[in-house]
Amino acid sequence: MTSRLNDDFLDLLFELSDAEARFLIVGGYAVGAHGYPRATKDLDVWVEASPDNATRVIAALEAFNAPIGDLGAADLATPGVGFMMGRPPRRIDILTKIAGLEFERAWPRRVTMTFGHAAYPVISISDLILNKRAAGRAQDLADAEVLEKIRDGLS
């Protein structure tokens, strides 16, 4: 499936890939990529919180000219620390932890989907459902219900 992302989002994904960072597209764009397009105010990118990967992510953010200030690799190697830039609907959230999942378990189950002219890693539909259920907000639970129908071939 091909999903539309703005040029800033595509540029960041390119830089993350070019830096060989381990990341997964999660959140609303992942929901859309799995077959339920809906409005979203940001691009959520979940990165592996390890020292080596954090160094790669920082390099990608620098190449993207992100306003990282004093954000360093040690910060992004810490689960639960994140980084946000921009304003909705062009905001980008870099996450080192998401509800209900560990990166090491989700990474092997990732799927690759095309955004723009390149393919990028996206959280699997089953892991996205787990994440949405664990997050528990009304929008997340509604997303999980629709995603379950898509996964089970009921939509």
From TrEMBL:
Gene3D superfamilies: 3.30.460.40. It comes from the Bacteria. This is Nucleotidyltransferase family protein. InterPro entries: NT_sf. SUPFAM superfamilies: Nucleotidyltransferase.
